[in-house]
Write a structure and sequence with these properties.
Length: 116
């Protein structure tokens, strides 16, 4: 998940998410949180509507951080508000539901691959 998406869910500024990561680097190894490359970011921007960067207004000054499932879980230790904790619980529940869906439909995915 992108830092900006998590900030929206947690009800904080994106800067607060990234500042928490910078202050707790040992909690966020690269398998938990990493920064997009310029090429990845440009590709992502071309797929979604972004704020107007022309004329120096809007947009981002830094490449976004991306959080894995483990990184999202670790954020609850960094962002200590009750809203952040509840959001982390909901996000983790969503990840579990996704895993269950994939596991319960594995044979269907295999059949689709075989047809292709």
């Amino acid at each position: 998940m992108l830092d900006s998406d998590l900030a929206m869910l947690y009800g904080v500024e994106t800067q607060a998410i990234n500042q928490g990561v910078r202050r707790n680097m040992e909690r966020f190894p690269e398998r938990f949180c990493f920064q997009l490359t310029r090429e990845e970011f440009d590709s992502l921007r071309s797929q979604f509507v972004t704020s107007n960067e022309e004329g120096g207004r809007g947009g981002r000054r830094y490449l976004p951080n991306v959080f894995t499932e483990q990184g999202v879980a670790m954020l609850s230790a960094v962002l200590k508000s009750s809203a952040a904790i509840q959001t982390s619980v909901r996000i983790m529940d969503a990840f579990v539901e996704m895993r269950h869906f994939i596991a319960s439909n594995a044979s269907m995915f295999e059949q689709i691959r075989a047809v292709e």
